[in-house]
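Contributing: when you submit paired examples, paste them exactly as shown. First protein:
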Amino acid sequence: MKDLNIFINEKLKLDKNSEYKEKKVDDPTTWDEGDILVTSGGYNMVLIYFYKIIKKVGTKSFIVRQLKQKKVSGNGWQGECVPIENEFDQSEKEITVRINKYNSLKIEDHYARLWDGKPEHYDHLD
């Protein structure tokens, strides 16, 4: 039994120098190509924007493109929305964004985070 535990521990052990990092919502250094990001903004509304990472450039930059979204609940003014994964907003082009010195990523003045797959709340009422 002891040998089995040693074997399992050796197989599961992650080397500190390993390239493996668990993806974290607020840590852009763990994000990669194909990940979907979400930002929210608005002065007295909650506007949601989804972006897909098209390409990782080096260790500090990404090329992203805005995704279309669909409403999954609500009345059109308030509710929840999700991205349409491979449908890009044709009015928006690819943009390059860079991780800042605070280890965060801003897309058009809004902080981005890794989308967790759950619908996002929006509110278009002014």
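Second protein:
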Amino acid sequence: MLHPAYEAIKSVSDKSQIIKAFHEDLTKHDKKSIEENPDSRFLWFIYRNGTHIYFLDNREKNWLEAIFKSFPSTKNYAFFWDGLALHHITYDQAIKIQCQANRGAQNVN
């Protein structure tokens, strides 16, 4: 049985037909990452050359900014898995979600 998060991102990919290369980002890497982190919330980005997945327990604070700088088109196709559903979000919302997660991680340490 597939994880609901993977089913959600696969559905977005299938409907949008945005990915033109590196389909394995979705079908192999994202799928495996979700299976290994089944209870995690994450940000997910889709673009012409694949996908990027960012689990909110990731401590690399500048990762998201680097993704947007290196792959600017991902700003248009940002999504947030909140543990129950996938939401299409804006660039600003993605940054805000990451900042909130980083503040939460700092409170734990």
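If you have annotations for the second protein, write them as plain sentences, like these:
The mean pLDDT is 88.
The beta strands are 42-47, 50-55, 78-81, 86-89.
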